[in-house]
Amino acid sequence: MFRNLAIGYGAVCYVVFLAAFLYSIGFVGNFVVPRTVDNGIATAAGEAVVVNVVLLGVFAVQHSVMARPAFKRWWTRLVPKAIERSTYVLLSSLALILMFWQWRTMPAIVWDVTWTPGRALLWAVFAAGWLIVLLSTFMINHFDLFGLRQVCLAWRGTPYRDLEFRTTLLYRVVRHPIMLGFIVAFWAIPTMTAGHLLFAIATTGYILIAIQFEEHDLRAALGRQYLDYQGRVAMLIPGLHRRSARVISDSVVPKEA
């Protein structure tokens, strides 16, 4: 019974994620969907800043805290391991949906590219950013990342095994192509409003901070293997990487047997 419930739950969580992901493209790009970064709830500027920062903070805290190994060890005492990732994905998606629903409009124009070729170029870069995000998930394991592999293995009665560390395609160019794709998509916009600028600054700042926590966890889990990877490959901007990773060698924790 649990195996059937787990795979059904995982499928529902994935559908909610997929809906939130697709909606986020329209939300950021300001098209198709009813609520966007420039078409939210009208309110005073001061209230808009406070509410929007809180909404972004809710997502940031949930997304980062639940991803930490210490939290996972505690959380899986309450939630079966097979659905831990699906639950994380579901709660992240719900945090995004809350933001879409309650986002406050800040309509002041910061910049507006009116030259047609320039607008077309920015929209092309915007689309490329989202494409990088999506393709990068498949370059590792899309279905493991969003919890489907875990529930499928549970349904089959097969023990879960961590994926082997691999650096394929874009992961040979930058260490975090998913995050790079998000940053590109958030900033490549022809008409930048105050609300969109707040969104872009806050999410970029969050990404840069979250990457530090993620890399700390990866060094702890993979040890010298990940440290060497850091020395070879840039974090976000191709070509900008450390020739030597000695500065962080003291923080490496050997992988447990």
UniProtKB/TrEMBL annotation:
It comes from the Bacteria. It is a multi-pass membrane protein. The keyword Zinc-finger does not apply. It catalyses: methanethiol + S-adenosyl-L-methionine = dimethyl sulfide + S-adenosyl-L-homocysteine + H(+). Residues 54-190 form the NnrU domain. One of its GO terms (biological process) is methylation. The chain crosses the membrane at residues 7-29, 41-61, 82-101, 121-140, 169-189. Its EC number is 2.1.1.334. Pfam families: NnrU. InterPro entries: MddA, NnrU_dom, Nurim-like. Keywords: Membrane, Methyltransferase, S-adenosyl-L-methionine, Transferase, Transmembrane, Transmembrane helix. One of its GO terms (molecular function) is methyltransferase activity. The keyword ATP-binding does not apply. It is an enzyme of class 2 (transferase). It is found in: Membrane. Gene3D superfamilies: 1.20.120.1630. GO terms for cellular component: membrane. Catalyzes the methylation of methanethiol (MeSH) to yield dimethylsulphide (DMS). Belongs to the nurim family. NCBIfam families: MeththiolMtaseMddA. PANTHER family: NURIM. This is methanethiol S-methyltransferase.
